[in-house]
């Protein structure tokens, strides 16, 4: 969709191929005094998500598809993706590997890792972050 390819894995690093360039990518932590750059979906912006984001103060919301949200965080374009609406394992698996390779993380709201190969393919609510 964006004419870009991302790949990577936890402990391996992460890269982006775009415009004929192959380059390593890394997350960028939030900088004090700046708005939080949050990737999300205007279609799935639930009251629970708004409540979750309230303590962060000023946010800049960028809307796009699920896997792309992880990759934008991985390349430093955002710091946070709270998902308090349904997704499936296939929506998140590959992009989570890229994000973790770039130094980010994906956890359930209780801080535990997002698990895969479960009997139920639906993901619990989670937060992806730089």
Can you characterise this structure?
This protein is an alpha+beta fold and about 130 residues long. Helices cover about 20% and strands about 30% of the residues. The protein has helices at about 45-55, 65-75, 90-100; strands at about 5-10, 15-20, 20-25, 35-40, 60-65, 80-85, 105-110, 125-130. A 3-stranded antiparallel sheet has the order 1-2-3. The longest helix is centred in the C-terminal third of the chain and has 13 residues, at about 90-100. The chain is globular.
Total strand segments? 8
Main sheet record: 3 strands, antiparallel
What's the alpha carbon Rg, rounded to whole Å? 14 Å
Helix-strand category: alpha+beta
Distance between the termini: 23 Å
Strand order of the largest sheet: 1-2-3
Return the average pLDDT rounded to an integer. 93
List the helices and strands and how they pair.
Elements: E1 4-9, E2 13-18, E3 21-24, E4 36-40, H1 47-53, E5 59-63, H2 66-74, E6 80-83, H3 89-101, E7 105-108, E8 126-129
Parallel strand pairs: 4-5
Antiparallel strand pairs: 1-2, 2-3, 6-8, 7-8
Helix pairs in contact: 2-3
């Amino acid at each position: 969709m964006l004419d870009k390819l991302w790949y990577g894995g936890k402990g391996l690093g992460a890269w982006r191929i775009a415009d004929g360039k192959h380059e390593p990518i890394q997350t960028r932590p939030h900088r004090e005094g700046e708005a939080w750059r949050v990737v999300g979906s205007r279609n799935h912006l639930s009251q629970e998500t708004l409540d979750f984001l309230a303590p962060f103060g000023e946010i800049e919301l960028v809307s796009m598809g699920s896997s792309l949200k992880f990759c934008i965080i991985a390349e430093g374009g955002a710091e946070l993706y709270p998902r308090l609406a349904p997704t499936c394992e296939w929506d998140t698996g590959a992009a989570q590997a890229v994000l973790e390779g770039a130094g980010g993380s994906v956890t359930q709201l209780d801080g535990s890792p997002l698990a895969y190969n479960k009997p139920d393919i639906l993901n619990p609510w989670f937060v992806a972050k730089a």
